[in-house]
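Example for tutorial group B:
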């Protein structure tokens, strides 16, 4: 080991000792000996979740039965938990509702955006490198609403906006490259052009400040099983800015979106507020697991999470450069902080095999087709020693 390399181990220990968020790791249950850098795909298990889920099943369901819809607060869970997530998104209460998958919420949001847009506008701008589900749903929503999908690089959106732009669907952070797009500037440009914005926050919520209200975003969606640690398949959320709520016309009006669901009336009257983004009976077990998971955020400022995330990814890059032979991997994620999410993506030959080998050695990241190694840094439970060990192990794989 070179002197530079042993210094990195010492630095990691010093950085962890000085890290105020380091103690939050106790709020999670993680297997011993594993460096978990896949929390951008499936967040770790918050320590309070198993007990809470057991209570929901045994007492709220087993004993209280149907009474729990009211007495255990099941019925209002979608908007209550939405309000719990809202501060992490920079949203005032009453604008976020939890339920369904991100894919389904994308459908509601994109069709809803098309219906909010000024009549006669024909274009739906969509992130050219978007996550597949966003692209598929945008295509279908466009067919249904008579819009044309125009693929565009997010950075080029301001130049692509025009009098024919109805709506814009973008990812805040690119899932493959980890590039962070300029939400404030793009949203401002879209607003100035009279277009409705829909942001997908799957890879930013819980990792960095989003500022939905401050930046005038119209609609947003995101999942809760990544940086929010809600558990496999936990329900997603939909943000409907207060100024649009009266006009938001959901393409999936269910009885849960009705102003008086228990009136059981044949005519649809949408509920006021974000509640109209609900559809059918919520998935209570996953929903309440998510609510318990969000306790891991008690007292945590998202600005501090962002600062640690950048420090972690900077340090990981420094270690990668020290431990790997030059030229073995190519950095895909931007170095500039303003353009970086909370992951590092490295391009390499044999990425699938390299990741398998890393996982076998206790460093869990993931592989994205065709040649990307992805390492997600979740500041609530990943530390600097983890970053150092991950890079050192990667170095060993390249032997
Ligand atoms: C993870 C992710 C999704 C997932 O959608 P599901 O409906 O939960 O499967 C969608 N969009 C983006 C950008 C994602 O990163």
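The residue assignment follows.
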């Amino acid at each position: 080991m070179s002197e530079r390399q042993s210094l990195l181990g010492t630095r990691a220990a010093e950085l962890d000792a000085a890290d105020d968020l380091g103690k939050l790791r106790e709020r999670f249950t993680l297997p011993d000996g594993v460096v978990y850098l896949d929390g951008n795909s499936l967040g770790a298990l918050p320590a309070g979740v198993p007990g809470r889920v057991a209570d929901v099943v045994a007492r709220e369901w087993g004993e209280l039965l149907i009474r729990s819809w009211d007495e255990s607060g099941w019925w209002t869970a979608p908007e209550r938990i939405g309000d719990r997530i809202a501060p992490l998104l920079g949203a005032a209460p009453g604008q976020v509702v939890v339920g369904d998958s991100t894919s389904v919420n994308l459908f509601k949001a994109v069709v809803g955006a098309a219906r909010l847009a000024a009549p006669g506008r024909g274009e739906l701008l969509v992130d050219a490198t978007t996550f597949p589900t966003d692209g598929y749903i945008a295509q279908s929503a466009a067919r249904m609403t008579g819009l044309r999908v125009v693929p565009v690089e997010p950075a080029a959106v301001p130049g692509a906006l025009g009098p024919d732009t109805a709506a814009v669907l973008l990812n805040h952070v690119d899932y493959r490259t980890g590039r962070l797009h300029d939400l404030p500037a793009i949203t401002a440009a879209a607003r100035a052009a009279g277009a409705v914005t829909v942001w997908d926050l799957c890879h930013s919520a819980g990792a960095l400040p989003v500022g939905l209200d401050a930046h005038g975003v119209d609609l947003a969606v995101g999942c809760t099983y990544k940086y929010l640690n809600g558990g496999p398949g936990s329900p997603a959320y939909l943000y409907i800015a207060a100024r649009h709520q009266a006009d938001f016309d959901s393409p999936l009006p269910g009885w849960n979106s009705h102003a008086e669901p228990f009136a059981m009336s044949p005519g649809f009257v949408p509920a006021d507020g974000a509640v109209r983004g609900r559809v059918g009976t919520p998935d209570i077990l996953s929903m309440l697991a998510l609510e318990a998971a969000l306790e891991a955020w008690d007292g945590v400022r998202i600005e501090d999470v962002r600062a640690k995330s950048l420090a972690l990814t900077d340090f990981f890059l420094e270690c990668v450069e020290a431990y790997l032979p030059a030229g073995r991997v190519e950095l895909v994620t931007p170095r500039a902080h303003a353009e970086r999410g909370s992951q590092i993506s490295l391009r390499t030959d044999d990425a699938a095999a390299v990741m398998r080998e890393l996982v076998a050695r206790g460093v869990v990241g993931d592989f994205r087709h065709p040649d990307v190694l992805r390492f997600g840094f979740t500041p609530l439970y990943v530390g600097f020693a983890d970053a150092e060990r991950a890079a050192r192990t990667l170095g060993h794989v390249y032997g």
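The longest strand covers residues 165-171. Compare this with the pattern of hydrophobic and polar residues in the output above.
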